[in-house]
């Protein structure tokens, strides 16, 4: 088992490489430090949470060199929410994840224990495949122009033999009674299915006030749930929460 001194030494080496180069890929770091890509990804997530670097596609860059002038506030929120969820997951849990941004961070933070991932996002499948401890069930996607993804995914979801322990999704709004709402779309049925059959739900909401566009009810206040509300950069807290 790695000691805290070894981990700290690796973190120092990563930061030194970033200071020298400005950017470095996860593959390069794994090769140079003689560890797995999964280990490097976890290191980068920890260092980003400590505001010592910024994550970007395929690697990391120096924090004082923002890309495209974008605020890192959104990344801070997603990291904080992912850490809160990962802290409650039990080894061997079966997870349904329908949030690409949150899912990528969450998968990177998972400890080296067995988990089972269900998702329709190819990007999450690619990332999870790099972690030998994660079993994967891909809900499928019709790549044709008129493909009916919702029907395919619902059909596959109903054939699952495993119980879903944790459902992790994004939604537009949760009312005061705990009902979950999302824009009307074909994907509503898929989200509703997993919200209903899961043991515990985590919902990342985009609005704390009822939006003015059409919404469909996808879940009721019948299961234990944590709801996280994304904040605007001008607000003081990283994210709001309702348990």
Give a written overview of the molecule:
This protein is α/β, with parallel strands linked by helices and 243 residues long. It is 37% helix and 23% strand. It has helices at residues 4-21, 26-33, 37-49, 73-86, 100-109, 122-128, 149-157, 188-197; strands at 23-25, 54-56, 59-61, 94-98, 115-119, 134-138, 166-171, 173-174, 180-183, 200-205, 215-219, 225-230, 239-242. The strands form three sheets. Strands 6-5-4-7-10-12-13 form a seven-stranded mixed β-sheet, sandwiched between helices. A three-stranded antiparallel β-sheet has the order 1-3-2. A three-stranded antiparallel β-sheet has the order 8-9-11. A hairpin with a 5-residue loop joins strand 8 and strand 9 (180-183). Helix 4 packs across helix 5, helix 5 (100-109) packs parallel to helix 6 and helix 7 runs parallel beside helix 8 (188-197). It is globular, with a radius of gyration of 19 Å. It starts with a helix and ends with a strand. The relative contact order is 0.10. Residues 64-73 and 233-237 have low confidence and may be disordered.
């Amino acid at each position: 088992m790695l000691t805290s001194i070894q981990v700290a030494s690796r973190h120092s080496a990563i930061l030194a490489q970033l200071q020298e180069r400005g950017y470095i890929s996860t593959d390069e770091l794994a090769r140079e430090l003689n560890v797995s890509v999964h280990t490097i990804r976890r290191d980068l997530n920890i260092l980003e949470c400590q505001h010592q670097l910024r994550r970007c596609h395929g690697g990391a860059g120096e924090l004082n060199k923002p890309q495209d002038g974008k605020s890192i506030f959104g990344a801070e929120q997603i990291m904080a929410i992912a850490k809160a969820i990962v802290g409650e997951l039990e080894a061997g849990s079966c997870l349904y994840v329908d949030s690409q941004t949150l899912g990528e961070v969450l998968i990177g933070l998972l400890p080296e224990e067995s988990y089972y991932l269900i998702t329709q996002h190819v990007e999450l499948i690619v990332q999870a495949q790099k972690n030998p401890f994660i079993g994967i069930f891909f809900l499928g996607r019709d790549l044709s122009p008129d493909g009916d993804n919702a029907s395919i995914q619902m059909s596959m979801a109903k054939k699952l033999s495993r119980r879903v322990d944790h459902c992790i999704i994004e939604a537009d709004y949760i009312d005061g009674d705990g009902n979950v709402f999302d824009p009307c779309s074909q994907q509503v049925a898929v989200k509703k299915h997993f919200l209903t059959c899961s043991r515990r739900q985590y919902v990342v909401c985009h609005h704390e006030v009822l939006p003015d566009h059409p919404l469909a009810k996808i879940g009721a206040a019948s299961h234990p749930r944590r709801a996280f509300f994304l904040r605007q950069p001008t607000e003081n807290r990283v994210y709001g929460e309702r348990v």
